[in-house]
Amino acid sequence: MDGEHYFSAQPAGELSLREMTVTLAGSDHRLTTASGIFSPDRIDTGTQVLLANVPHPPPGGNLLDLGCGWGPIALTLALESPRSTVWAVDVNERALDLVRRNAHIMGLDNVNAVRPEDVPDDVRFMTIWSNPPIRVGKEALHSMLRQWLPRLEPGTEAWLVVQKNLGSDSLQRWMDGEFPELTVQREATSKAFRVLRARMRG
Known about the structure:
Layout: E1 17-24, E2 27-34, H1 45-53, E3 62-66, H2 72-80, E4 85-89, H3 93-105, E5 111-114, E6 125-130, H4 138-148, E7 152-163, H5 168-178, E8 182-190, E9 193-200
Parallel strand pairs: 3-4, 3-6, 4-5, 6-7
Antiparallel strand pairs: 1-2, 7-9, 8-9
């Protein structure tokens, strides 16, 4: 793949659907994944670490999964916060289609799987959960975080998981300097990953 799934709207490989059973929000689900996306065969370790360390999501409002892939974070948000609107955002059209398929399989009607430009500009978020695509490079990653982190509602939090050897500590330092409106803390370290919490003042 050479990382193409992180920034290609249409993956080059032929679509090959597959099924797998995963545990989300404490229950097992038989879901669909495919080639040409991030971690198509399992819930990747970083996402597992994130989901093990985040608090229960807010009971309503707009919630964001940034870089959703086939949807484990977005689907967990939707299961745990059924009265919320979950925005599953990715540039990969195949991943977005899988999120829609899986939300339908699970009977979830509160998931919007969309490209970044399809989120209305006036939408603000009660939380952001993300396993961000670090391998797109620092410039693209920073641009992504500049676009989305300021859209947190006052007093709410973003939760990010980043592999230690891929720059979690330098990213935390950059966020500290870049976003004076955010308080950034390391909340957990597990399996070579760090979970960062960024709280919007207010």
